[in-house]
Amino acid sequence: MAKKNQIEAIPVGKLTPEEAEAELARLASDIGRADEAYYNKDKPEITDAEYDALRRRNLLIEKRFPKLKRADSPSDKVGAPPSAKFEKARHAVPMLSLDNAFDDEDVAEFAKRVRKFLGLNEDDKLAFTAEPKIDGLSLNLRYEMGELKVAVTRGDGETGENVTSNALTMADIPKSLKGAPDVLEVRGEVFMSHADFKALNDRLVAGGEDAAPNPRNVAAGSLRQLDAAVTASRPLKFFAYAWGEVSEPLGETQTDAVKKLGKLGFKTNGLMKRFDSVDRLLAHYGEIETQRASLGYDIDGVVYKVDRLDYQERLGFVSRHPRWATAHKFPAEKATTVLEKIDIQVGRTGKLTPVARLTPVTVGGVVVTNATLHNADYIQDKDIRQGDTVIIQRAGDVIPQVVEVVKGKRRKGARAYKFPTVCPVCGSHAVNEENPATGKADVDKRCTGGLICAAQAKERLKHFVSRQAFDIEGLGAKQIEAFFDEGVIRQPADIFTLRLRQEAGDIDLYRYDLDDKGARKRDKSGKEKPPTNLKSVQNLFDAIDERRRISLPRLINALGIRHVGETNARLFALHYGDFQSFCDAAKQAREEDSPAYDDMLTIDGIGALVARGLIDFFDEPHNREAVDRLMQEIEPEKVEAAASSSPVAGKTVVFTGTLETMTRNEAKAQAQGLGAKVSGSVSAKTDYVVAGPGAGSKLKKAEELGVEVLTEAGWAALVKR
Ligand code: IVH
């Protein structure tokens, strides 16, 4: 597998499952950190574009590898949990987020998905609204019998902060309403205008305080002041654009409902318009984009919503987004700089990844020094050469990309880049392996050095101690680098003998400053530093001992077997139950016609490619020896089967024939939402076949196999139980 910090550079389409898994873990953590910084500290650490890129990448990976989706996937979460300062309040209706579209094609696809879901034809009428996406923070205002009762921030979407006393100080928020439904929750965006932001900043600076970074931050900080008097002194504005719980509908369409909010006394955005074709939506997007700079407040895109509310109802939600809306973001920024050098990084499974070292340049507020070049083909196709002036982009991908070479600026004599044919770390041959699934040569070159290659060995160890594997506190990538270079840790078992070796005087860990993010420290003369970090060394030993008992999925994942990441490790663990059976099976499965091999392939989700990865791993004497040594140090736990929640959770369902109360997509979404798997074909593994009129061969097959067949009504009854 590619190095951790290289995986970010790999396009989603090129990720191996194990890389995807590592990447999903990283994204979950990075997004979590960004959410915390943005929502709870009001101090974003990354730009909105970067944040969107993280989320988009996460989603794309989940789409490509649905099985790898994490239980704590950021796709299922909105924002960060509320901060402890304010009283918490639960939303009657969750406050969700919007899916993103980054180009015209994404918008067209959004409209197409909507049509498909609703079962509409090309010529059936379907109207959308388009309006600016305000860059502020969303707020839910609950009115009961026309009185403002409570104002709650979005928080994590389920629970937010009760900021009622602050909301009461805002001029744009009516305190009471006439002619409103008995229960009415109005949702919209709190923001600060450019003019007010500038005035406030001048005031802050004059008073010796720090200037605020942007209007959104000040708006958030102002609304979340514990002292309502401070909020009152900050000119916050509010646009209403949505609603939560309502005791009676506000209208039949989005347009009517928003008009009604206007009549009730809320400010609504004048740029919201209704259109009945994608082309018109896009034209309005262009219009809003041209006006962007002169609006007087920050917007970061255009939101499209299905106009008919009965359609919105039917479309419903998928994880954290409504299916009936999307946010068309303004484009990512590009910049021109010089590609000084192409470096090759070697990953855990030997993959060679080219990285562009750039003359630092600011793109979208962030200084960029590296960009991905993906692989040899990418460099060749674009004819990228060292010393070239290049255009880089930070867009719907995490790491900046080199998108174009400015050929006119190429210096004379610049030679085409030759991708290495040997590993830059160990000198072993680097080859394009054949992909057993396609029979074609892989685009990626891999070092054939295996554990001989220091880069691969180190990356494997880093993976071994990583968060989803042994998760040893105090032993991170940097420490592994240092320990490996010194020969203190060369294979996993060495980690568990550190204490003994230290006590025997074979090694001296006090020479390393373990607190300093792994940077090795000695005194100036190069001699041992006094044991000031005695405690951290002892803590490390304790942390290691704590992990001698380890769950089976973690252990299997930790081994770094090609194609076996968290998800497949779990599948193997569940199937084999204990480590010994797993190893035995892997060794016995060497012959492709052995019962052990056949048995391995009966595991739902495990195919020939993964099986090959596992078999090859145990075929390698190095690996067998390393595993044996490790097993003398640790004690893997056995696995227990997981419990299910809904009546169809974990079941496999096939829909066939015509469904009458919903489209196929609706049915599928409903089933998946309840934890079922939806399959297109009937087999012995199918639990239910839901058959409507006109069902043919699938129904017949179900009957032959004795699979339970349900009518649409029968299915509805089952899932409503
Ligand atoms: S509609 C179910 N309309 O964008 C989602 N949201 O990424 C209903 N936002 O949480 C939201 N302008 O804070 C909507 N015109 C607009 C918006 C808007 C800004 C924000 C809002 C939301 C976030 C979603």
What does this structure look like?
- With 721 residues, this protein is an alpha+beta fold.
- The chain has five domains: 1-64, Helix Hairpins (Orthogonal Bundle), CATH 1.10.287.610; 88-329, D-amino Acid Aminotransferase, Chain A, domain 1, CATH 3.30.470.30; 472-546, no CATH class; 550-636, Orthogonal Bundle (DNA polymerase, domain 1); 652-719, BRCT domain (Rossmann fold).
- Helix content is 36%, strand content 20%.
- The protein has 26 helices and 26 strands.
- The longest helix is centred in the N-terminal third of the chain and has 24 residues, at 17-40.
- Residues 96-98, 131, 133-134, 138, 154, 189, 241-242, 303, 322, 325, 327 line the site of 2-(butylsulfanyl)adenosine.
